[in-house]
Predict the structure.
Amino acid sequence: MKNIIFTFKDGSPKYKQIYEQFKLFIEQGDIRTDEQLPTIRQLAESLQVSRNTTLMAYDQLVAEGYIRGEGRKGYFVNELEPALFQQGTAPRNEQQTESTTPVLVNFRADAIDQAHFPLKAWRRIANRILTLQESFQYGDPFGEVCLREQLAAYLFQSRGVKANAEAIIIGSSTQQMLIHLGHILKEDFPSVIVEDPGYDGAREAFQFHRLHFETLPVYETGADFSQLGQMQSRLAYVTPSHQSPIGVSMSIQQRQMLVHWANEIQGYIIEDDYDSEFRYTQRPFPALASIDAQRVIYLGNFSKCFLPGIRLSYMVLPQPLLNRYKDRFRHFESTASLLNQLTMAKFMEEGEWSRHIKRMRLIYRRKMQHLAAGLKNEFKENISIIGEQSGLYLLVKVHMEHSEEWLIKQASSYGVKVCPTSLYVVNNYSVRPIIKLGFSSLSHEEIQLGVQLLKKAWS
Amino acid sequence: MKNIIFTFKDGSPKYKQIYEQFKLFIEQGDIRTDEQLPTIRQLAESLQVSRNTTLMAYDQLVAEGYIRGEGRKGYFVNELEPALFQQGTAPRNEQQTESTTPVLVNFRADAIDQAHFPLKAWRRIANRILTLQESFQYGDPFGEVCLREQLAAYLFQSRGVKANAEAIIIGSSTQQMLIHLGHILKEDFPSVIVEDPGYDGAREAFQFHRLHFETLPVYETGADFSQLGQMQSRLAYVTPSHQSPIGVSMSIQQRQMLVHWANEIQGYIIEDDYDSEFRYTQRPFPALASIDAQRVIYLGNFSKCFLPGIRLSYMVLPQPLLNRYKDRFRHFESTASLLNQLTMAKFMEEGEWSRHIKRMRLIYRRKMQHLAAGLKNEFKENISIIGEQSGLYLLVKVHMEHSEEWLIKQASSYGVKVCPTSLYVVNNYSVRPIIKLGFSSLSHEEIQLGVQLLKKAWS
C-alpha cells in the first residue's frame, strides 16, 4: 500500500482522524480488499503518535468491519461494495445505534479468543469430512455415535464422569437441551431450585415451561444450603465447578450434600458444566456427575471451550430419563450440524481437542492475571475482585457510591463496554454493584487500555 | 495414618498421581476424618519428589474440600460420606447388526448427490468465514441478518415471496420450526389439517403438541378439497409445490381456494416448500406465500437443495405471528450453526447458490429420467410411476398381488433397499402398494443395477 500521509487537524482526537482517513481510503478503493495494513507499531512510528492511538483507530475499523485482525499476521482489509457508499437505501438494518461514543474495548463475555483458535487443524479436518459419504445424509436424532464415543472417553478422563456413549444426547445449545429436558420433566417436577444469582438463560428455559422457582442464595463465600431441606422442589439446576456468575466452586462436602438430598427425595440435579476446563489455580474439579450418575443430569457444551458458533452441546441422562427422552424425541431430526459433529469427533480423536484445551487454559490464565493485576493496580481498595481463579470473566465489586447503571454508562462514555450482573439476580442483590468483565476475546494491550479507561471513567 | 506407598506410573504428572491416590484413600475411608496427613516436607521426602509436587497435590485436595490446612498444625482430612462412591462400568458400545444381505443399491430418499457438491466453492468460503471476527461470537437468536437478507432476495426472485429480512426466522430443521410454531399456535389452533398421505415428520411435530388432525385426501390426480368447508380446523399444513409423498402440485385454482379459505376463517396455512427447486418439466411454481403473505407461514430448508447435514431451515411469518414468535423466543440462542449461516450467506451472495441449484436441477432431471425409463422398460404395465416431474424420488405403484412388506423384503434379499409409503398414510390407503425410490445419491450405473435387481426380486 502507498505511503500514508496525515496532517492532523486540531479539535478532534488523533485516533479518530486516523480511523476516518483509513475508512475513506478503503471506501474509495485506495486500499484494496485483503491488502495488509501497517502494524500498530509501524503506523505509530510513521505518524509519531502512541501505539495506543493507532490501536484505538484499528479497533474501531475492526468493530465496524472495515478491516480484520488475523492474530500475529497483522491487519487486513475486508471486502466491501463500493456502490453502497453512494446510495444509502439498501436493505434496512436491524441494529440500533445506541451510543455515539465508539466502543474501544468491549469486555464482552460472549466471545472467545480468535488469535489462538486452531484454525489449521480445524480446517484440515472439516475439509476432509466434506469428502465422506456419511456427510451427505441425515444424521442420528440423538447425535452421531462417533462424537458420543469421543465425548464418553473425554468425560471419563477429564471430568470423572462414567457415561455410556448411548446415554449421551447431542444438541445445539444448553438452552435447547434445557427446553427439551423441560418437556420430559415438567409434569413430575413443577418447580426447580436455581442459584441466585444464577444463569438467566437457564431460568428462561424453565420459565418457558412455566416451572416455578425456589432460590439457593450464592455468595462470594459459596452457596448457602441451609434452606435446602425445607424446599418443595425435587429438581435443582446448579453450576458446581464454576458458579455462574459468582465464580465459586462447590466443595466436596457441598457436592455430597446435594447428591444426598437428590437421593433422599428421588429428585434430580441438573449440573451445567459449561466452562469447567478453565480453572487456573488448581486442576479442574471433577464433575458432580462423577459422584452419582443416577441423580445427576450432566450438561456440557463447546461454546466457551471451543467456539460458540459451532452450536454443539451435550448431556448425559440417567437411565429412566434417557428412556423417556428417547421415547419423546426419537421421531425428530437432530438440530446440531452433522458436519460440525463429524469434524469435532475427528478433532477429538486426533488429540487436537485436548491440546486446544491445554493451550487455551494457559492463554486465558495469562489474560485473567493481566486483567486482575491491572485492576488491582489502578483501583486499589476501591474494588474487590471475585472469581479470578477460573472462567473467562471476572467480577468487580465496586466500593464507591455508584449504581450499576452509572458504572456501565460512564464506562460506555469512555468507549468501554462492561456487563451488568443484576440480570442474574432473582432476590439476592449485593449491597455494592458488581460489574462483569469478560476478557476472552481481548488482547493484553486491549485489556490494559480497557482498565486505564475504566479508571478514568469511574474516578 | 499408615504408611503411604506409591508406585508412580509414567504418562501422568506426579502431583496428579499423589492427588488421586489421596482422594481414593479418603473416599474409601483408608484415611479417616480429622486424621492428620504427613507434612509437605515429610511426604516429599518419603516419595522422593520435590516439595512443590506435594504442595500442588495438597492444594488441589484443599480446593476440592477433601482436606484442610490448619496453619502450622498441618493438613487434616475433612468429613465425607464414603457410601456415595460407587465403581462404574467402562463405556459400552452400541450399534446393532441387522440384515445379512449386503446392500448393493440403496434407493434412499434421505441423502443427496455427493459427486456434484460444490466442494471447492463451499470450502473456500467456509475457510474464509473462519477468519472473521463475527464467527467467534454468539449469533442472533433469529438467525444472522446477512443470511436473512440473502434469503429475502432469493425468495422474491425465485419463489415470488415478498418477505422482509426481518420477517424471516432461521432454524435448524423444518421439524424444529414446526415445534417452535406449535408453541405459539397451539392455544388458538387445537387442531390442524394435514395431507393424507403426507409428511410423517410434520405430523410428529403436531402430535408433540397434542394437536388433533383432520385429513385432506391426496390422490395421483391431486388433493380433494371438497370437504374443506366442513372442517373444524383453522390451520392447514400443506406441500403445494411438490406434495410429499405423492408428488402432485396444486393448481393455481386450488391455491387460490386454499388462500380464500384461510382468509374467510382467519386461519393460517403452513406451506412446506422443501424441494420446489427441483421441477423438471416446467419452471418451479411460485410459492403459495406469493399469493397471500398474510395467511401463509412459509417454510423452506437447505436439506434437499443443498446438504441435510448443514441443518439450516427458515420460515417467513405473517406480522402478528412474528411478534408473538419473537416475544416467545427472544431469550433463546439460535440452534443453527453460526458458521454454516455465515458461509451460506456468502455462498448466496457470490452467486454460487443459484449456480448450484441450476446445475443440480439438470443432474437430478437426468437421474429421474434414467430411473423412470429403466422402470418402464423392465416392468411395462405391471407398475405405474407417480411423480416423475419433480423431486428427488419417484413412487412406483405395483399392480401385482404383493404387499408393501413383501416388496421391501424381497428387494432387500436381492441387495436393494427401497422405502415404504404406508408410514405417510393416515386413512387414505391405496389399493395397490406404493414403493418410494429415492435416487439423488445414486449414479446412473447404480440406478440401472438397482432397477435390474428389482426386476428379479419382484418377478
